[in-house]
Structures are given as structure tokens and as C-alpha cells.
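Support reply, case 0932

Customer input (verbatim):
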Amino acid sequence: MTTDHEWVARRVDTIRFVDGERLERRVTLDLDLVELRRRAKAARLRQGNVPIPLLTLSKGPLLDIDVMNVRGESLAIATRDQDAHAASAMLLAVLARNGISIGKIPDTVLEQLYSITRDTDPIELEHVAYTASPSAFPSPPSDGLIRFSAADTAAWARMLSSTEFVDGLFDYADSFMLLSHIDLRQPGDVAIVKIRLLEERNVAETRTSWFSPDRLGWRPQTQRIPMWGVGRAQRNHVRVLAPEESTVRSTRWFSDDETLKRVRDGRDTDGQAPLDRATFYDSGLPPADYRVEIDLEPARGPFLVPAALTTGLLLFLVGMATLFQWMDGRFSWAPPTFVFVPDDTYGWRMESIQTVQANFDAAVTVLAIVPSLVAIYIVRAGEHKLVTRLMTIPRLLVLASAFAAIVCGGATAASVQRGSLLLVYSVGLGVVLVAFISVLIPIVRVSWFRHKRRRLSVLAEESQVSAERAGSE
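Our regenerated output:
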């Protein structure tokens, strides 16, 4: 059942992004009861409840999982210990098929095999690999080398001579089978099992470096989603729902670097591809592990357009303040002015005073507007956590531009000297300008993609109309 897919008639996967770290996966399996009954009879099993491996999942805590039949009745799943026993038995069956006597394997090796398939971080696997081939490691394992006896070392050497066993050993060390039971006595030829689980994502599958082009908004960000092999069907349907206010730019479905399907710039072989989801279909796939890769970029609405308006207004305010300060220093203290005032002793005396040319109403206005813009930016509706991750650097630059404008207004109200105030304005203007450009580039990219997609759609419709006319003629 783990090496072919004849017992699963159809499999439908629907995957939804909960946030940047979690996925909700819904899987529907249409089980071929006729094939399952035939296998149970061949294995001399009773025609009652028989165990079946539904899926393989990456080892880790199960946050939330439901397994039920088409009537909504919950189906029990195996525990971690039961799964480890099943995985160990399957690996031993592989050894038996390859001519290795199971009865000659020491009990200590069997315990180590069980530990590898059970634990989420099996230390024994690294030591087993080092024992089998020390030359492949630059140094012994860091967790303290486990000393194997001569009999254990010889047993592991025989077992690791089977490539099929090695592949299965590493697979079950990294993942586990979702085991359940199916009643073969139920009427009909098809049994439907529905699985819903909330799973944590591997950090390596979701994060890139801080200043990578996808976080700058210069290209879409790739999200990788594993599609586990056990339970592969004769017909496989996959649908990945994009996060809210995001766009699917390209999609790929990979198996051992072989591209099974690819969508590029919203186009596939059949025409336009949907922008809010990635859909895949294939039949006759081998029961291997695959991965889905989708390239996401944010839509213009929830973040880019408000950010562009905010930074554009800040650019105008700070830019005009910098220009006026550079021209006549109107926002700083004026040079000393000498005036004559009446004096009882000498009649008149000369005093030096400084007059303030700054328009403090302008400073108060800036201090009132900028916090409001920041508040509107922070509390905007419709933002998804993954969208926030897609635009990490532009978001930080927009916040930096808002705070730079606040600093400029505060320096104006504090009546900083002319040269220092011009320097503050110049630095603030540079920050706001960089933020405005960082938001403008993704807007241009997304707009060009939308325009290109509409143009291709129009050309496709015109081509179809021309073909229909030619056919009618």
C-alpha cells in the first residue's frame, strides 16, 4: 500500500495559508473498497476493520487534526508508538525481501531501529550513518559517539547494504504515517475519508534573508509546500489558496527536479490561470514525495497604495520645508538684530535681540498630521500576516519615513539653529524619498503584470473569435 496507488481512486488536497508559519491542509481520499478487499483477502485478513496508511506527515506536534468519514464520524488514528511499530515492521519486511534474515538481527539493533522511527530528533540515525561510513563525515557526531558492539556494527552494515532500506530509514526518521482503520464490510465500492489538519511550517520553507529581492518587493516570494507520498492516488487534485490580498504570480509542482506543471505570469497551457489560487491535476503519479512552489506578491490595495499616498504626502511636506529652509532659513532663528531703546541715564541704549521667523503653526500642523498618517497606516484593514512578510523592508521604510517627518517637526518646534535644522531636513527628506521609491517599484511591477495579463487575455479572445469566424466560413 505504500509503494503503489491503486487502492486510492482520487485524492483532493486543499491548502490554505493561516499565517506565515502555519497551513491548514484538507485532504479527501476516495478509497477503492474493491481493491482493499482484494488485498485483505490476499493477506488473509478478516473482512472487518483493517489498518490503512492515509498520509505521511513531517514529524512534529499535531496542532489540530480531524479524520472522519463521509458521514462526519470521527476515525481513530494511531499513536506515535503504534506508528513506530508499523514503520519498523515495514522496514524489516524490506530487509526480508532483500534476503536478510530478520531472526539474526540483535535485539539492541531492533530497539535502535524502533527509536529512529519514533523520535522526532533521532540521535541514533546520525551515529548509525557514521558507523556505516566514517569517511563520509568530517568529524564524529557532536552529541557523543554511541559505541556499537561488533555484532551491532555487522548487523547495521548488512542492513544498510539495501538501498530501499536506507531510503525508508531516512524517510521514517523525518516523517510518520497517519494510520487509521477502514471497515471493509460497509456497502459500496468507494469509501471517502476526510482529513483536516493544522500544521506548522518549516522555517526554511518560508523565510529568506532580510535584504533579499522578495522582501524588498522587487520580485515575488516563493512559498514551498510539501506533498507527502503515501496515499498518492490514481487521480490527484491540488488547490493552494493564496493569502488574503495576495496574487499568485507563478506555480510549479516538482518531483525530483522534474517539473510536472508550471504556470508563469498567470498563464498556463489552457489560457488564463486564476490569481487567487494555484490548481494542479495529474494522474498516474508514482507514490513519491512532491512539493508545490507558488510565487506570491501582494496586491496593490491593502498596503501599496496607502503607503504610496502616505510617503508621497510626507515627501511633499518635508521637501518643501527643506527647500524653504535652504533658501532663507525661515524655520530657524534669525541673525541678531540691533535696536535702540530709551534709557533714563543715557537717553538711548543699543540692545541685541533675536527675532523668530519660524512659522510655528506649520510645525504644529506637521506634528498633528504625521501621527495621524502613522495611525492610519498601522490600523489599516485587510492585512494578512503573510502579506506583511512579503513587504518587510518597504513597511519598515514607511514607518521610518513617518518618524523622520516627526523628527523634522520636533526640530522645527525646538527652534534648532539654521545649519543643523537644514541637516535634519535633508536627512529626513532622504529617508522619505527612499521609502517612496521602495513602495513605487512594487506598484509598477504589479501594475505591469496586471496590464500584461489583460492584454494577453484580449489577444486570446481575439484569436478565438478569428478562429470561430474562419471555421464558420
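We compared this against your earlier run and they match. Two observations from our side: The CA atoms of residues 309 and 436 lie 9 Å apart. The mean pLDDT is 79. Please reopen the case if you see a mismatch on your end.
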